[in-house]
Input
Amino acid sequence: MVLSLDGEGPCLFMFKLVESFKRLDPAYRNAFEVIFLYPGFKALLMHRLAHGLWTLRVPFLPRFVAEVNRFITGIEIHLGAKLGRVVIDHGLGVVIGETAVVGDDVLIYQGVSLGGTTLSPVKRHPTIEDQVVIGAGAKILGNITIGRASRIGSNSVVIESVPPESTVVGIPGRVLPKKGVKAGEELQHGDLK
Ligand SMILES: CC(C)(COP(=O)(O)OP(=O)(O)OC[C@H]1O[C@@H](n2cnc3c(N)ncnc32)[C@H](O)[C@@H]1OP(=O)(O)O)[C@@H](O)C(=O)NCCC(=O)NCCS
Output
């Protein structure tokens, strides 16, 4: 099956994705609404289809599926992007670049860009580890890694890698001291790259 990318069948993938929405969307009511009414759910399924066709080097069709996806959901995902069980909430204006890699249970709000900073055809988009939350309008730029379970503040611009469980805000993004830890004791500067 084209939708079966990582040895996981489309039904199991959809089931797990609904579960992720249930966990990460406080407005969740039922699976039926997620499947039929959530743009983020549709966008991810259509992307899995487009990415699978693109991997098989099928001409035109993958690009067409991605175009329909963008038209219906307002979410633009390049065919090459590798996405796990990503919960895209609201979703309008989300752009995910070709070499982006996004893990499972990642929550992405509207207006987020996972963008590149070079025109060279190399890995130039971010890697987002599992359970990261990316606030509305945030831009994460370049071949950097956002560590597991980090939180990116809305409208931040992140241009450097951050370690797991970081909270990042501002332009350029800065890692906030962990709550309950005294200033000066918390930041491991060596972990920032
Ligand atoms: C980054 C975030 C996760 C931090 O949450 P938190 O741990 O509760 O942090 P706090 O509210 O205690 O704020 C900590 C500091 O960061 C600052 N801050 C928080 N969010 C910020 C943001 N988006 N941009 C700039 N600064 C921000 C606060 O002003 C505060 O600064 P101070 O210590 O100088 O007073 C949260 O603010 C955020 O932006 N979440 C995204 C939510 C979102 O996009 N929702 C969309 C729903 S449609």
User: Anything to note?
Assistant: Residues 189-193 have pLDDT under 50 and may be disordered.
